[in-house]
C-alpha cells in the first residue's frame, strides 16, 4: 500500500482494494512476522521484536520507509486533520471522515497533495490546495509544466492558492471548521489533509548508532551497505545520492525503493551491483492529463551548474491528430551543452506519459548524446504513438540540435 493511497478516495473507494495480499510473500516461502522491531542488537546480530522475541541475522536489511512531515501549525493535532500515512486503519478513519466531508483544504501542492485533490474532487468535494511555492508540483517540474497542471486542476473545479502559507487550522468544539492563511483569508474546511513531504524513518538506525546522511536518511555506500557492513538499507529510509552530482538528494519514490531493493538483494551474499545514483523518474495524473519528469528539469540543471541545452516538441499521442482520443503531447529534453549528454526530460500528455519518461530515463542512464537521441530507433503506430515524423523524443532532440 503506497502509491495507490489517493485512489482509495476516488477510483477505489475502499482501503482493502489498495492492499497487496500477504500471499505474494508467503507463497514464495518467505516467513512474515507482523510485529514492530524495537531494537537492533548489532553486538548479537539480532533484532528485538515488541513481544521481546529475538531474531538473529547474518545480514539485515533496513526498509523502514518514511513518515509524513508534521509542520508546526496550530491545530495540526485536531481530529479531522489527516496525513498520507501508509496505515490501513488510519486510512479507514480518513475514508469515514471523507465520506462526511464537504469542504477540504489540502496543505501542500506536491504530487501527493495534487493526487488527493483530484480524487476528492472526483467524489464531489469542494477542494482547495494551499501551496507555499509559486506553483504546484514545482519541486518536480519546470514552471511551464506546473502551469499546465494548475490549469487542469482549475478546469476540474479545484481551487489552487499558491505563494501562501496556512497560519492556523481553526476549530470549533474540537473539530476543524477552517484554515486561516498568512495573507488573512479564511477558508472553510471540515477536513484538512496535510501533504508537505516525508522524512526518513531512521529511529532504529539511530539507536543502533548507524551513520546518518546529510538529508537525514541512513547513510549507505554504493553497494547499499550502511556503516555496518552486515546491515543494508533501501528505500525511503536510505540516503539518496544524485546520479548527476553524487551529492545527497531528497528524492524518495517507490520506483527508487524497488530499484534499491533489487540492488540490495543482489548484494546480500556477494557485493556485485553498484548503485551509481538516483535519477528520479516520476509521473502523475490529473484527470486525463499525464505529467512526468526524469533526471534534472531545466531549473534543477541550472541550479546544479550545468550549461543547459533545451529542446522541446509539441505533437499528439496518436496520428494523425484527428484519431479518436488523440491528446496533445508536450516533451522537453534537457542536455548538458558541454558533454551533449541528456540529463533530463519532462512530458505532459495522455496515457503514454509515464512510459515516455521511462524511455528518457534509460537514455539518461546510458548518457546518450543529443545526436544519439535524435537518431535513435522509435516504433510508431497511429493508435499508440505520435507520428514517425514528429515522434516527440526525436523531435525535441532535433530542436536541441538546431541550437548547438
Ligand atoms: C500518497 C502517496 C502516493 C505516492 N505515489 C507514488 C507514486 O505514484 N510513485 C512512486 O514512485 N512513489 C510514490 N510514493 C512514494 C512511495 O510510496 C515511497 O517512496 C515508497 O513507499 C517507499 O517504500 P519503502 O518500502 O522504502 O517504505 P514504506 O512504503 O514507507 O514502507 C516501510 C514499512 O516499514 C514499516 N516499519 C517501519 N518501522 C518499522 C519497525 N520498527 N518495525 C517493523 N516495521 C517497520 C512501516 O510500517 C512500513 O510498512 C507515494 C507516496 C505517498 C505517501
**What is the gyration radius calculated from CA atoms?**
23 Å
Strand tally, please? Answer: 22
* Cα end-to-end separation: 46 Å
Low-confidence parts, pLDDT < 50 over ≥5 residues? none
What composes the largest sheet?
Answer: 5 strands, parallel
Give me the side-by-side strand order of the main sheet: 6-13-7-8-9
Describe the structure in your own words.
By secondary structure, the protein is α/β, with parallel strands linked by helices. It is 24% helix and 26% strand. The radius of gyration is 23 Å and the shape is globular. The mean pLDDT is 96. The structure holds flavin-adenine dinucleotide (FAD). Flavin-adenine dinucleotide binds next to helix 6.
